[in-house]
Design a protein that fits this description.
This protein is of the alpha+beta class. It is built from six helices and four strands, in the order αβαβαββααα. It has one domain. The protein starts with a helix and ends in a 5-residue tail after the last helix.
Amino acid sequence: MIDNHTYQQLLPLACEWAKQQEEFILARGSPLAPRGASDARQIGVQDPSRVRVLVVDRIPMPENEALAEASRRAQIITDSSRGVAIGYGIILRADSWGNRELLLHQLVHVAQCERSGGLESFVEEYLGDRKASAKFTVGSLEEEARRVAREICAAEPVAK
């Protein structure tokens, strides 16, 4: 559990780290393929053309050790994380590339970020939502991303 004092100290660091990561992804990532752009519009992303996807061997942890440790303890980013959305940037682990449900999940976070008014406000909202959940569990934003991704995949006809 992360106490309120530590949370308040780490929040500005988390916002700065997120900003740097988004800039990195936007500079090096690839635009969504046509199906991904269509999925983004269906989910409610206002500007799918701004989304970039970067495929990596592992999801990067913050360089600040206190922030990295808090991220691991709260299970926001761990060694087993397969993807993360940071503003209009999405990072996917290479061994999960092609997992549509994972991409859909991340696109929901992009739409949530747009709805919140931008990256910094989304980071604050997302972390506040997680902090308000019992033992820093998933929270309502994460639950929405999981639900929407599952529903879209379940509604798709099975190939014969």
